Structures are given as structure tokens and as C-alpha cells.
Amino acid sequence: MSTFDEHHHIENDPSYKGLKVNKGVESVPTVNPDAAKRFLKKKKPRLAIDDYVKGILDGNVTVLSQAVTMVESSKPDHQEIAQQIIEKCLPYAGKSIRLGITGVPGAGKSTFIESMGMHIIRNGGKLAVLAIDPSSERSKGSILGDKTRMEKLSGESNAYIRPSPSAGSLGGVARKTRETIILCEAAGFDTIFIETVGVGQSETAVHSMVDFFLLLMLAGAGDELQGIKRGIMEMADAITINKADGSNKERANLAQAEYRSALHLFPPTKSGWTPEVKTCSSLYHEGIAEIWDMVQEYVELTKNNNYFEANRRSQAKYWMYESINEQLRNHFYQREEIKSGLELNEKLVLNDEKSSFMAAKDLLDKYFKNIK
Amino acid sequence: MSTFDEHHHIENDPSYKGLKVNKGVESVPTVNPDAAKRFLKKKKPRLAIDDYVKGILDGNVTVLSQAVTMVESSKPDHQEIAQQIIEKCLPYAGKSIRLGITGVPGAGKSTFIESMGMHIIRNGGKLAVLAIDPSSERSKGSILGDKTRMEKLSGESNAYIRPSPSAGSLGGVARKTRETIILCEAAGFDTIFIETVGVGQSETAVHSMVDFFLLLMLAGAGDELQGIKRGIMEMADAITINKADGSNKERANLAQAEYRSALHLFPPTKSGWTPEVKTCSSLYHEGIAEIWDMVQEYVELTKNNNYFEANRRSQAKYWMYESINEQLRNHFYQREEIKSGLELNEKLVLNDEKSSFMAAKDLLDKYFKNIK
């Protein structure tokens, strides 16, 4: 204050040649009003819903990414924006081939996706690569976060690579991925890959959102199979023995023959398609074109016998019911009265002191008495 | 009235030698009070809870059947009695081998069960045969209702055959069967068969309540497989090619070899058991003893590596959560506000006019606003 007064005093001196300092106002605003205005504007979405939609329909990948970020956000206002975008994109979605790709770590999924992806792009396709990996602790980034995994593909303007949504419940991650498919399709991507690691619960989720499900394997069925979950083989529309190159080629052919004879014992699929076994070398780009041709054949067959469309519709229905069931469960298990009783009831059940159904009933009684 | 008065009059005549008729009371009760008492008593359970439990523990099959009827009843008071009986039987249950048997109609399940069952009984075992067949319209009676199907077995005092509970939701039928297992075990049955038709949704349910899951097949993998659901083969602890007799024997051996090489490509089971493929002729009782020996081997292996007990515990837990989830769903879908909105939302989803998740959200919002 003394300094101010000093200046003030000096200023009034006619001989003063220094900077003119205006008299201060009584209450100085603590925040610059212009900056505040700009700041508040930034908190709002940078784009209006229609701008998002237009950007997506124009194939603008930056806008697409921003919309996907909204889809993945857990904030309610972001979610509302996301739902509005999705709603407006829905009529433009659906016109793609959705391919699920699974296999244990080490089966060579990234190299396969890169090789197959480049093949598709060279043939004029537009490819989006998504992933479901709810268990990943390497998020935000997940299994696909490391862009160096698909160096060539990530440099292509007709490829869009998006890592798995951050770790969360499988239901949540699956929902986000399924909504991202819609946005990618509306943005003009005609091929969607959804990658997953074939060791957890996510294969059923992926299987329920794709047209074709491909299981990537290695030759020498034995140790390599240790990780694969039982039941996945019977979901596959095709098994591909990867790394069929060099000294491994013979073993791959043998494995192919074995899997072929195994698959013919399986019950027929609902699609009318007979699951095939192929070999390929993603590293040397051998057999890749044949696999893509096979997928095209599948699409042609199932579009002709109407399974393709019927399956899409039943998937949409499945996700509606699945989403309802998941949220009913979430609501239940998050209630305080349930949290407090769950552990004890589980313990009683495990010790054969209470029947599973009585334990369930006791918990449900607590829950339902709060419903009008 | 005139007749009565007449008699009355006559009676007072000293010369009257006929039957003496007492003077009537003013208000004749319309129901005999003694009969009413007996009738009301009949409406109550004939046995007290402890009588049920004692009867079951004594191995009284009549009492067991009455208790199972309570389990299967949908009346709330019967359900309460059932739960109390189960609770008291739980400490005595669990000491059996639970075997799931599935296969398409025509695979010869009844003949197999009869042949295997007689083998078990001849070796001193006590066998209960239950079934899960929620789809059956032939109830009450279901696939096992026709006792002639297992003529020999049903005449044995150490065999207890109980048809599938009447048609209802799979969850409901599964619950009833699982509770019936407990009662049968408490009654001293050391082997429980649970039969199901391998074409529906019930195999997963059966698989989740048994120690060993056996898939019954026929030779000539082709047409016979049409009915089997995909995914069942990977659940099986053993595949048995039935009807391996006469001119069919060679084909059965061929099928056995094929399935063996197919199964070795499957991922290993959690139990440490390698699924086997056997042949048998239920009609000529060939190969039956070998299959039973295999089941014993499995039990020995898994009791030694603790999988047996761990699996039982995880099944009990599974059923607690499954029961909760089922009843949450039932409650939701039975609400008026949901019933009225469900069809429209499903239609919008199927026509790509609304996203699966938005439809789910709109329905859930209606539901949750009624919860305190």
C-alpha cells in the first residue's frame, strides 16, 4: 500500500515523466471476466450435437474420436450427449462387416490384425479396430494402447484404431464398444474388427456383437491351448492357425487337419455356415487374402439366407435385455442393506448352513420391501 | 314338518312300540361339527416339519415324496414348509455322487439310465433319478412320467424316480430340482441322476448342479447331432456312444475314435480330468460297468485334488446369485409400467430407431423411480 501511495503521490508531481498509474477501483475483481467467460465456455461441449453428427457423417476422425470419448465417459452429462449422438447416427449405421477376433496372448493377434487390415485397406476398405478388454489394468490404453503394435495400420488414414475403454465392468465396457461400433459405421467405416483376449468372460460379449467370430490359434495344440476358455471353440465361425511359416508350416498343416476333423463333429451352426479351419502367416502375409475371401463368402451366404439380418436384430434385442439385467443387478448389489447382508449369507451357503435359495430370498426380501 | 309332528304325536301315545324319535333342536347345524374338524385338519400339513425331517432321514420314500411335493408346490405356505424341511436336511445332504445325463431324444437315455441304475443298485447303491425338462408340455409327468420307460428300475426299493417338476421357468424348475437333490441325499440316496434333453437351455443348469456331466450320443455323427446344442460337447466330462451293439458296433468304435481325437484338441478342464469317450450297449448291458468305474475314478481324482469340494461350493454360490438375478428379472418384467413399455421399446430397437441401451435406460428409469 505504501508503494501505491508513493506512486500516486509522485504522479501528481508535474515534473513526473514516468508511467501514468490510474487511480485504483474500490473492489478489484478477483477473476478476469473475459477469461471466466472463455473458461466457462470450455466446460460446455465444444460442439453442438448436430456438429458431432455432421462431423461423424463427414468421416471426420477427430470428431469421431471426441464422440467416442463422450461414449466412454462416465459423467452423466457426457452420457446424455453421447446418447443423443448415437440416436442420430443410428439410421446411418449398420452397413459394415463386424468381425470378432480372439486368441490367447501370443497367438499373434496384433500382427494378424495389421496384416489383414492392410489387405482390406489396399482393397479400398475403411477399417476400424476396437477392443474389449475389461480386465486390463494397463488402461487407459489397454491392449491396443500401444500404437507401435500396429505401426503400419495406425499410419493409414483409412484405419481408425481405438483402444479398449478403461477397465470397468464387462457390461459397461461392452456397451461402450457396441455404441462405438455405431459411430464408426456412421463415419463410413465398412469393416469393424473387435479384438479380445480369449481367456476371460468377454468372448461371449464380443460374439454377441459381431457377424463373424474368428479364433486365432497356434500349431501344436497343447500348451498353446492352456489359456483358451472352454466353449470358445464352439462359438467360432473359423479357426485360423497363425504363424504357419518356416519350420512351423508342417505343424500348422497338421493342426489344420486335426481341427477340421474335430469341427465336423460339432453340431451345425444356426447360420447354415460350416466353420472352416485356415492357416496363415501374418508376418509374411500368406493366407490373409484367403481368410478375407472366406469372410466375404460367409457374408454372402448369410445375407442370402437372411441369417445376417436376423442375427443383427437378435443381437440388438439381446443387448437391450442384457443391459436391463446388468443394471438391475448393479442397483441391487450397491444397496447398503444388501452389501451388509451379502457376505454373511454367502458364508452360510458355503458352509451348508443355509440353502442357496433361502439366502437369496432373505436378501431379496430386504430389497423389495423398499419398492412401492 | 307335518311328518315330524306326526311322529312326535305318535311317540307320546303309550301304545306306540316303534322307534323313539327325540324332539328336534331349533337350529340344525348344516355341517357335522366333527366332520368339519376333521376336514379342517386335512387342510393343514399332515405332518409337522420334524416329522417330515425324521421320515426323510429314516429313508421313508413316502415322506420324501410328500416333501418333494411341497418343494414343487407354488403355494407360499407349502414353500415355507419346504424351506424349513430343506434347512433341517442340509446338514445330512451332500454325500452323494451327482451325475448329469444329457442327449437328444432317441439317444437312448431311459434305457441307459435303467441299465446303469440296475448296475448301481446291484452293487449296493441307492439311486434317485430326477429330471429337468422345463419345456415339457407333457407335465405333470414330463419325460420321466411314463414309468414304463424304466420298468425294472421303478420296481426297485432302492431306486427313487421322480419326474421333472411341471413346466415353468427354467430357473424355477432348476431350483426345485436342486432342492430335491438335497432331500434325496438326506434320505440316504448315494447316487443322483439328473436327466435332461440336450436341446434346450437346461444343460447349463444341470451342469451347474452335478459333479459329473455325461453326454449320450449315437454313432454316425451327422443327423444324430442335428439336435444337440452347440457348447454342450465342451461341458461334457465324458461322451458315451450308446447302442454300440449288433451291426452298429463298428460304427460306434469309429465314432469313439473320432470324438477322442476331437476332445484332445479341447482346452483342459479345470477339474484336472481328461474327458473320455466310451461306447456302450444299454440294451445288452455292455460297457455299463466301465462307465460307472470311470465315474468313480473321476470322483477319486477330484476328491484328491480338492476340485470336487471346490466345485460343490462354487455351485452353491452360483445358485444363490442365479436365484437373486432371476427374481430381480421376474420382479422387473412383471411390473405394469414395464409390461406396457417393453413391446414398444423392443420394436424401436429392432427397427434401429432407438439404441439398445437407450431403450433399456428408459425402461429402467420407470422402474427405479418407484424405489425409495
Keywords:
seven-stranded parallel β-sheet; 372 residues; alpha/beta; hydrolase activity (chains A, B); GTPase_ArgK (chains A, B); globular; Rossmann fold; EC 3.6.5.- (chains A, B); homodimer
Instruction: Estimate the strand proportion of chain A.
Output: 5-15%
Calculate the mean pLDDT score of chain A and round it. 84
Sketch the major β-sheet of chain A. Answer: 7 strands, parallel
Spatial extent as radius of gyration of chain A:
29 Å
How much helical structure, as a percent, in the residues of chain A? 40-55%
The shape of chain A is globular
Task: Name the chain pair whose interface involves the most residues.
Answer: A-B, 68 and 68 residues
| CATH C-level name of the domain at 93-318 in chain A | Alpha Beta
Q: Supply the CATH superfamily name of the domain at 93-318 in chain A.
A: P-loop containing nucleotide triphosphate hydrolases
Our count of helices of chain A gives 15
Uncertain parts of chain A: 1-14, 137-146
Q: Provide the CATH topology of the domain at 93-318 in chain A.
A: Rossmann fold
Cα end-to-end separation of chain A: 66 Å
